Amino acid sequence: VTGVGINTEWGLLMASISEDTGEETPLQVRLNGVATFIGIVGLVVAFSVLAVLLARYFTGNTRNSNGTVQFHKGETSISQIVDDIIKIVTIAVTIVVVAVPEGLPLAVTLTLAYSMRKMMADKALVRRLSACETMGSATTICSDKTGTLTLNQMTVVEAYIGRQRLDPPDDSSKLHTRISSLLFTGIAQNTQGNVFEPKDGGAVEISGSPTEKAILSWAVKLGMKFEAMKSESTVLQVFPFNSEKKRGGVALKVQDSEAYIHWKGAAEILLASCTKYMDLNGQLQSIDGEKEFCKEAIDDMAARSLRCVAIAYRPFDVEKIPADTESLDKWVLPEDDLVLIGIVGIKDPCRPGVKDAVKVCIEAGVK
C-alpha cells in the first residue's frame, strides 16, 4: 500500500464530491427570485399604506370607532398623535412581515427531506438534498445497455451455416465434418477467451468477453474440444479484434501442407469480403446469388436486437507465408476472397423489471 485516504485517486474523487461548493441549485435560485419579488412588492405596498394612512390622519379623515375625528389641529395632544402614528406604522410593518415569505426555504427543505426518505425506501441513498430536486427535474435518461438494462449473459440463439438455419442453433447432426473442423478451429484459435473442462466432469468454465463466451459456449455445445483444436494447428500471426475494422483474424498452419486465415467479426462487414460460402455438405459455392439472402438474415436478426457475428476463412499458400520472424510480424493478413462458414445471432437477455421500469418512465413523461 503506497497511499490511503485523500492520497488515493478514489479519495480525491470522494473529497471533490463531498466538498460543498456553495453553488445554489436551480430551485433555490428560483425561490430566492420569488422571495425577493414578493419582498419588494410587500415593501412598496407597506410604504403606500403608511403614506395614505398618515395623509388621511393629518387631514382629519380618520375617525374612531364611535365616529369622532381622531386629529384636530391645535387641539389633539402630542402624546395622542404619537400613539396614533405608532398604530399606523404598526399596520405598515405588519404588511411587510406578512408579505416576506421567510418560511418558504424551510418548507422546500422539508419537502426535499420527505423525497429523500421516499427514495431511501427504494434503496437509493441520497447524500445531498438538492439531488432529489435534480432527480425530479429529469426529462431524459441516457442509460448504458450492456449489464445495466441486460444481464450481460450473451448466448447464441440463432445460427446459419452456409444458407441453412440451424434449429436449434446447437444441432450438430446436420454439420459435415469438414465444416465442423474448420468452424471449431477458427473459433478455438481466433479468440481471446478460454475453455476449461474440469477433469472430474463438472460444468465447463468459459472465460473472455461476453461475445467470446457466447460463441465458445455455442461451439462447445456443438461438440468442440477446445484443447484438441488448439493443439491441431500452429498460430503464425494474430490480428486482434479491432473496433475500427470490427473484425479479428488469425493465420494458422495445419500440419505442414495447409495454411488458413480465419476471420471473425461484424456480419455485414465480413459478408462484403466473402466470395464463396460452404454449404452443409462441405462444398464451396459462389456467394453471388446468396448475398441477398444473407443480408436479409442479418437484417432480420438485427431487427430483433441480436448481435450478428460472421465466421469466415480463406486457404493460403504455405509458400507465400514469410519465413523469418521479422517479416512474419509485419505480415498483414489478407482480408479479401473469404469463404463464409456461418453467421450467429447473439442475444443478451433483458434484466427482470427493466420493461416495467421503462414503462413507468414513459408514463411519467421521461424519455
From TrEMBL:
Its subcellular locations are: Membrane
Question: Which stretch is the leader sequence?
Answer: none
Q: Which GO terms describe its molecular function?
A: ATP binding; ATP hydrolysis activity; P-type calcium transporter activity
Q: Which UniProt keywords apply?
A: Magnesium, Membrane, Transmembrane, Transmembrane helix
GO annotation, cellular component aspect: plasma membrane
InterPro entries, per this entry? ATPase_P-typ_cyto_dom_N, ATPase_P-typ_P_site, ATPase_P-typ_TM_dom_sf, P_typ_ATPase
Keyword presence, Transmembrane helix: yes
Give a yes or no for keyword Transmembrane in this entry.
yes
**Membrane-crossing residue ranges in chain numbering:** 34-58, 85-114
The protein's superkingdom reads Eukaryota
Protein name, entry field: Calcium-transporting ATPase
